[in-house]
Every structure is written in C-alpha cells, then in structure tokens.
Design brief:
The chain is about 30% helix and about 30% strand. The protein has about 200 residues and is an alpha+beta fold. The chain has a 9-stranded antiparallel sheet with strand order 2-3-4-5-1-6-7-9-8. The chain is globular.
Amino acid sequence: MSGTGFFQSYHWGWGRPDATTLLCDLEADGMRLAPPSGGAEATRAMDGTGPSPGAADHRERFLALAGSQELDSLDVRLRVGGAWDVPLRIRRAGGGAVAVEIGLSGLPYGPCERVVRAVRHTVGRASMLCLGFVLDRGGVTAGTDWDRVVVDGTERIGGWPDVLAVRDRIACTHAQLAGRPSEDRSPWRVFGGEIVTV
C-alpha cells in the first residue's frame, strides 16, 4: 500500500477463526466487504477459479480464502460508511507470519478512526498471537519494509508512524528502538505519540 495511509498488523498462526474475528469486528463497526467489481481482477483476487462471486457468496468465499494456510495474498475492498471503499489485504509476511493491511488514504477523520478502532479491537483480542502493528495515517513511512521491522527487527525505520508496537525482543535489539521511550502494553512495547488502547 505504498504512498498511502495504513494500519498493518502481523500475526502467528493465522487461520479462518482469525479472519472471521477480523471481519466480524469490522462489520460491528458498520463496515462491509465491498461487492466484487467483476472481471479478471476480482476473479484473480478471490481465487481465480471462475466468475467473481455474487454478493451472497462473497463473504463466505473471503473467509475461506483469508483463513487458508495456502494463502499467498488476498485483496478485497471494504465499504466504510456507505461512501468510501478502502483496500484490505491479507498476505504472507515471511517467518511464518501473516500481515493484515488496511489502507486509510482518502478517508475523512471519522471513518478513518472507525476503521482503526475496529482493527485495534481485533488485534487486542488476539494479542498473544499478534507480533505487532503499525499505524501510519499519512503514509509517511510507506517506504519502510515493516515486515522486516516487526517480524525480525532488521530493517531501518525511515520515518516514524503514528504508532508502532513490537515484541520486547525487537524493541530491545533494534538499533533505533532500543532505549527509545515506549509504553509497556503487554505483549508489546508501543512507540508513538498516542495512547493505544487495545
């Protein structure tokens, strides 16, 4: 989601129950999977086995694919407040982790915060299996390889997001994070100017 605002989280042991929890939390805050747009792009995004699914099957198909252990990458769009669509991607991030990315660019403040709140709720409920997360509303850090920061702690951070949460091991060994002020929000160390309630 280069060049756009985003919320990105990283998870161990991702499966269908996690995808279901994510989607239910988003739906509880008024978001829905946008209807498939049709054509080759929608077909390829969902699984490439035939015509794009109708609205009735779209949710079930998303859950089956999003929770699949064979998942490489799954791209759909979320309808936020009936007026905006934002990208949602679930993909393999290396090291056995799965990344969940939601684009935030183009959203007014209220809908943006609704998306952030719903995803934080999901992350908080699955905290023991969540390696960490990044919130960058303005997309100023889109050039940073966050996989290599959050999952293995090897990437240099080129700019600072609104919030960054990583496990203690990463916080203590990463050259730019070690010694930097943070909050203990077990199981993470949280960096940034916001109080994070998850």
